[in-house]
Design a protein that fits this description.
about 200 residues; alpha/beta; about 35% helix; tRNA-binding
Length: about 200
């Protein structure tokens, strides 16, 4: 990991007000919180179909570029690659923040590389970056109840019960992103996976 190179934190989601509260949009929620923490303001990226915000993590700390693709989930990779190339961000400094069906609601997991688990945003990123070896912050949404189609489930809003915990969990996911940037994936796993 380079101390000089910036970090690209990709909040995965779908653009548009109708998707704002969806489980699939939790990446956008975490990116918004991180922007407020670093004093960044999202604006339209000139070089990619995305919104971006920039700032530093702490005084004189690592530079973060936060990205919310505006391409819809299954085409997220193109804006990620455009901005990674423009800002000279190595793949080792790319973090995707996304919803995860295979992690129970209430848990946030850090991971380096691996499969996409059917997540179209990750699939698009892996294809565009030509590697799966980037960090992920997996925000657990759990499996759909009963026979509900997973595609419908991820595009539905969090339940009233889940919304009571949502702010805390978005905050925790932002903490995990910061831990990866400052200390690495393994450190973040050791700190956050036990609780």
């Amino acid at each position: 990991m380079s101390d000089e190179a910036p970090w690209l934190v990709v909040g995965l989601g779908n653009p548009g007000r109708e998707y704002a509260g969806n489980r699939h949009n939790v990446g956008f929620m975490v990116a918004d919180l991180l922007a407020s923490r670093i004093g960044g303001k999202f604006g339209r990226a000139k070089r990619a179909q995305a919104e971006a915000a920039e700032g530093r993590l702490g005084f004189g700390g690592p530079r973060l570029i936060l990205l919310k693709p505006l391409t819809y989930m299954n085409l997220s990779g193109a804006p990620v690659v455009s901005l990674a190339q423009f800002f000279k961000v190595p793949v080792a400094n790319v973090i995707a923040v996304h919803d995860e069906l295979d992690v129970p609601f209430g848990q946030v997991r850090a991971k380096l590389g691996g499969g996409e688990g059917g997540h179209n945003g990750l699939r698009s990123m892996s294809k565009s970056l030509a590697t799966k070896d980037y960090a992920r912050v997996r925000f657990g949404i759990g499996r759909p109840p009963g026979r509900q189609d997973p595609a419908d489930y991820v595009l539905s809003d969090f339940s009233a019960v889940e919304r009571k915990e949502l702010d805390f969990l978005v905050d925790r996911a932002a903490d995990v992103v910061e831990a990866i940037v400052l200390e690495g994936v393994e450190w973040a796993q050791n700190k956050y996976h036990g609780n």
